[in-house]
């Protein structure tokens, strides 16, 4: 007890000194912080924030204080950007200063600090980014489309067998396409050591251990981390230690698999990078191999953690169920352009604008990363007469941008037609310029994500109706879309019926349809 009292007083003393010191330093800066709601000393704006959906609070604040906001949380400066223009001005045009990431001790404690997305701006991150770019840049992604299409057809078959396992099938689809493009792993032919099942198990351990509340508290009071795991309230240290062991193991396993393949393996992130070194006649150093292992681990494990493509596809199913008219309109377009004797492919994309419109509206309606990934300011900066302090966390409120009423009237309604011109063609606003983030840290897997999601949406709509569940009297039940809270947003579990659109569409007919589409 005595020790605690001493530690507590010391910590409090340090905080007071820090607080006064920082205020003194700031008072020398001639520019004010951007406007924002008043907060309590040091703890800042902890009161009044909707903790499960802070983007909604920031959106409200913007109505009073404007699109560039200043907030403070437990001693941290936070700058919130609510408009695309400011996001471009800062994160894009001044990207040199805004491409860092804030440090989160929980990433290290859970063993996922290797993840390129969390890495500080610097040479190690640049090398990771190069690996990604080689494989996932716009003109490299078409190499993966045939595999994506075959897995999307497989998804149709899985949905036919067990439609009630929709979310498992979506997980399998998105995991299999990324495993293939990262490690040249074919989940269809490697069922015994199925990395997809292993990944699902690993995530069940890592995701619960990655607690944002712990990240905030440890960020503010780092000395707490030195307390033993048996100490009251510190049991998370044990969970994080287990998560750490799992993530390290998972980083190694698929990478080893990729290295064991022959020199003429199909394209993948690992093989693209190795081949490039071979062409240059360079023998890779250990640190280079480690970086490749980490970047490929990010492509697979990282995208499993935040479940981006998964969440978009689950949102698509949910939206189709509650908007049957939208679904039918898109299906009529598929019937008119593709017919019913084969499945749509990426080649049909220019003639299926409604599929793109549905994809865009799905991204817009419920952004899966509403506050994007946090950036951090490398140095002090001044923007529009406001001081943005070095080290500030920069949050781009993608939700706010996607729900801007002046641009997207009736923003809380799901209206894909908002992206279609009167002549039926697509408008230039593709949502990708917002939903994949900004500047040098923009999503490096965006082109791959687009083909993954588009391919699945088009095929699913060609074959299935997505309907509301029935009650015990056979009457359709009302469904209210509900979404998770947290950094990554996804629909909460929901029931739906997935039934073939055409009479007599049994497993055999579906197989024939798939075969006709790959011939
Ligand atoms: C529809 C699906 C996806 C969406 C909506 C999405 C969205 C985002 C967003 C908003 C960011 C933050 C950008 C920023 O900091 O400004 C991001 C970063 C990132 N995304 Fe995606 N993403 C998707 C799919 C993918 C896929 C399939 C991959 C892998 C192939 C991927 C890899 C990454 C990586 C590595 C980063 C971190 C980039 C960095 O820090 O340099 N994403 N994504």
From TrEMBL:
It comes from the Eukaryota. Pathway: Secondary metabolite biosynthesis. Heme binds at residue 443. PROSITE patterns: CYTOCHROME_P450 (PS00086). Its cofactor is heme. Pfam families: p450. InterPro entries: Cyt_P450 (IPR001128), Cyt_P450_CS (IPR017972), Cyt_P450_E_grp-I (IPR002401), Cyt_P450_sf (IPR036396), Cytochrome_P450_fung (IPR050364). GO terms for molecular function: heme binding; iron ion binding; monooxygenase activity; oxidoreductase activity, acting on paired donors, with incorporation or reduction of molecular oxygen. CDD domains: CYP64-like (cd11065). Keywords: Heme, Iron, Metal-binding, Monooxygenase, Oxidoreductase. Belongs to the cytochrome P450 family. This is Cytochrome P450. It comes from Boletus edulis BED1.
